[in-house]
Amino acid sequence: MIRKLGAKAHIAIGLAFLVISIVLAAGFLGLIPDREAAVRDGRIALAEAIAVTAAEMTARGQVDWLAPTLRLVVKRNPDVLSAALRTEEGTIIMQAGPHAANWTLNNADMSTDTELHVPLLSGKEHWGQLELRFRPVTPEGLAGWLFNPWVKLVGFIFLSALLVFYFYLGKVLRHLDPSGAVPDRVRSALDTLTEGLLVLDRRQTVVLANRAFAEFTGQPATELIGMNAKKLPWTDSKGGDFNLKAAPWAHALHDGEVHTNNTVHMRAPDGSLHTFQINCAPILTGGRQPGGVLISLDDITSIEQNSIELEKAKDAADSANRAKSDFLANMSHEIRTPMNAILGFTEILRRGYSRDGADAARHLATIHSSGTHLLALINDILDLSKVEAGRMEVEAIDCQPYALAHQVIQAIGVRAKEKNLQLDLVVDGRIPETIQSDPARLRQILTNLIGNALKFTEHGGVTVTLALDTRNDPAALRIDVHDTGIGIAQNKVDQVFDPFVQADSSVNRRFGGTGLGLAISRRLARAMGGDVTATSVPGEGSTFSIALTTGSLEGVRLLDDAALQASVAVSADVETARWILPKNARILVVDDGAENRELVATVLGEFGLTLDEAENGQIAVDMAQAKTYDLILMDMQMPVMDGYTATRTLREAGLTTPIVALTANAMQGYEQEVIAAGCTAYLTKPVDIDALLATVAHIVGGYREGTNPTSSVTKNVGEPSVPDRSAIPSRLATKTRMHPVIGKFVLRMREQMHAIEAAQRAHDFSTLVELAHWLKGAGGTVGFDAFTEPAAELETAARANDAAQSALWVDTLRDIADRIAAPGDTPIVTPRKTKPCAPAKVIGPVRSRLEANPRLHSVIGKFIQRMHEQLPRIEAAHRAADFTELAGLAHWLKGAAGTVGFDDFTEPATELEAAAKAGNNSDCQRWINRIGALTRQMTPAGSTIDITPSRAP
Predict the structure, then answer these.
(1) Domain boundaries, the chain
(2) Topology with regard to the membrane (predicted)?
(3) Residue 529, by phi and psi: left (phi above 0), alpha (psi -120 to 50) or beta?
(4) Residues 771-803: pLDDT tens digits?
(5) Residue 205: how many CB atoms within 10 A of its CB?
(6) 35-137: what fold?
(7) Alpha-carbon distance values, 925 to 240, 767, 886, 931, 936 (Å)
(8) Looking at the domain that runs over 178-299, which CATH code has it been given?
């Protein structure tokens, strides 16, 4: 091993040993104090001092006074283990510390380092001795040797001298220029070479560098001398760290062979990355290993860059050819499909193969739709050509973005219904009633994006959200089209905006299409001064966002969701859906709200159905067991017995009659909860009459004579609208048969508003929650949609015991109530005064909405395990009244549960967080009970275990 050390290490070791020799010589000559001798002398002096004291006290007859002195000596001096006075006969007359059992010397023995005895005289007579027992001066064994002062001194001086000499010699040797041994004429010749030249010694230290290499590194050649090669800016091909052990010169030094045509990379002082072709030749010195290595470096950066550019150009050409071939094949298929229908049915008509006029009309309709589709394909190609040629003209005129989005959704909504998908229009906050844009092109963009979203979505739905972004000037209108479809890989998101491109060929084969819609949409948006962007998660869905400048908003009204719906005259017309229903069908309507039962009875009564009514679950159970019904419409939140309990009771009794849940609760995950309770289907309030009729018809065997479908428009929860003093009629007011239902609601609403205001003044939040929940469902059901948003907000504020927010929303509801307009000839009916009871909830198996994706099963399982660990922490924080900890845990649950698809936890976690922040102990307990019940009903992804629902506390 010593042979492997360099000259610098050898010299440093020799000098260090020389210093040690000098130190040892000084010690032998007595020039260095002996610490152990000093310790022994001190112990002897102590013993003699005590002996003198003892002799003096003996002479005075005060021997007993020595005991405190001995104890004080032992206590104050950590080296003294014990002390004693022993008589001439060997009897110990006093001692301090454990002395008698540990003393080993006889009277005739000599004192040692650890046991010291001093004779005591009384006059001239020897009457006893003082005995002191000490700790060893140095530890015994190896530890004693290591802690010997001489060993520590020699070791310290040796290591210090070795380090000082080693680094000093390194600094001195570094300034020695080994290139001075190279003749000037040889150096001049080397400096004329265009290639870099480098000579390294066996330790990879630079001993020679020519001018070409020095100029590349930006350092003088003299500064490179003595530098280790690892300090040079070598990198890998991507600019990362370079593995010096794999360097060609390292191999040449190791195996003593020439290595040629290797490639290395180095970063220049300006930050650019250069590529070198290097050759390494070992310098043989007669030993077993080379004494160094000669390296030549040729900069081939430009050659490599040209090669990369050529490869990219080739790839681009190949990609373009493939895209063209794919496009031609795709367009051939897309064009031939409608063309086949056009030519085929035209030939049938030309030859007179149609059996009757109805057949001919059907064939003509097919020809017309195929021709329209073919024209759309051609228009897409022409639009793309115009945009790319810069000849697409757009205008900037007043247009209503909400109205355009609503029209597109109504026109395209039939596709969503065909695929059983939800298609919603949402307004986030307030947006301008009009903007400066091109309505035709905006409609085209929306049609492309929404149509695309529906095409690639098989489950779930599509949500179109409009919002105003005021962070920049001018403001921008943002339209997000979010779907729950197949998603797009992250590295292919930008590619979908290229013409003729889809995410992959399998998508094209599965869903069809030309791949032009997104390309045209982005180009149109950019032509209008905006853009279209996309984000996506494979397997979860995509969001395509349109950003458009609004133009000047001076004098433009900013409207919320309700006002925008009114502006486009969205109305639910009960006569637009013509259903033919069997006259002998019998239906039981169960709801604690008389107006809700009357509305359903009025609508279904138009179709000749036989209807019975029940005002709570107990009555419904009795009636369903006494009579046979084809369908039961069941409200889930009722007094006496709620819909969950009633449904479970009927199912446990063996009843197989379809039961459709009808409730104002539209929380995510609620559908799974009611289905788990035993319901067949799920409808929300306000009652969508078309959806109600479609569900009833599907169950009792009806069929549709004619339809006018409308899409679902999701209400957005925002701030109260700016007061509008105009009257608010019901959207059902044009239907004479609905007037009694509307009139009864108006009368009851006015009475309930007094109850709401009284509960708010008394801070009776539980009653306020019940009344707000009733108003949220009942108001929308009879066509007063203005109640839905503020009633929902009031319910949320009351659940959080937020008196200030509750007062704000009660005032908003009072303003709306004062503007409610009842139909002119509404009969006055005195409503019964009933106090709604707190709804009970029943919990079924709680599953994640993401469990259909097997890749997420492990994530879901980990969350379930974590939730079972967190629940005791939540309960402990509540018992300790640690509301800060409780709010933090609730906040974690609110986010984490929703992330992994357990949406059932969102509401109770939100409410628990609010209750904890407000320090409301009783509400915290209630929501913790709810969370605990949900946790116990959590079902792992993929589990088929039947878990019997249990009532939540």
Answers:
(1) 2-32+144-174, 35-137, 178-299, 307-385, 393-567, 585-703, 728-821, 842-951
(2) Multi-pass membrane protein
(3) left
(4) 988 888 778 777 787 888 788 888 888 998 888
(5) 20
(6) Beta-Lactamase (3.30.450)
(7) 56, 18, 11, 10, 16
(8) 3.30.450.20
- φ/ψ of 847, rounded to 5, equals -120, 155
Average pLDDT over every residue of 159-169: 84
pLDDT of residue 186: 62
Domain 585-703, CATH number (from 3.40.50.720, 3.40.1440.60, 3.90.1300.10, 3.40.50.2300): 3.40.50.2300
Q: DSSP letter at 722?
A: P
Q: Which residue bears the tokens 């064994």?
A: 141
Q: What is the DSSP string of 486-550?
A: S---GGGTGGGGSTT--S-HHHHHHH---S-HHHHHHHHHHHTT-EEEEEEETTTEEEEEEEEE-
Question: Is the pLDDT confidence value at 836 over 60?
Answer: no
Q: What is the pTM of this model?
A: 0.31
Listed in sequence order, the residues at least 6 apart from 387 whose beta carbon sits closer than 8 Å to its beta carbon are 520, 523, 524, 527
Instruction: Please state, in angstroms and rounded to a whole number, the distance separating the CA atoms of residues 133 and 114.
Output: 6
- Kind of pairing, strands 631-634 and 659-663? parallel
CB contact at 8 A, 605 and 613: no
Using alpha carbons, list the distances in angstroms from residue 464 to 226, 438, 479, 863: 68, 19, 7, 31
How do residues 754-765 score in pLDDT, each as one tens digit?
999 889 888 899
β-strand pairing of 578-580 with 586-590? unpaired
Show the 3-state SS of 425-448. EEEECCEECCEEECHHHHHHHHHH
Q: Would 307-385 and 728-821 be classified into the same CATH topology?
A: no
Lookup: tokens for 148: 């010997």
Q: Which residue has the tokens 């193969």?
A: 353
Tell which CATH architecture fits domain 393-567.
Answer: 2-Layer Sandwich (3.30)
- CATH homologous superfamily of 842-951 equals HPT domain (1.20.120.160)
- Fold for domain 728-821? Four Helix Bundle (Hemerythrin (Met), subunit A) (1.20.120)
Which residue, 699, 694, 737, 735, is CA-closest to 598?
737
Query: What secondary structure letter does DSSP report for 331?
Result: H
Burial letters for 265-287: b for 16+ Cβ neighbours within 10 Å, e otherwise?
bbbeeeeeebbbbbbbbbbeeee
* pLDDT per residue as tens digits for the range 491-539: 777 777 776 555 454 444 444 455 567 887 888 888 888 999 999 888 8
Average pLDDT, the chain: 78
Higher-confidence residue: 260 or 36?
A: 260
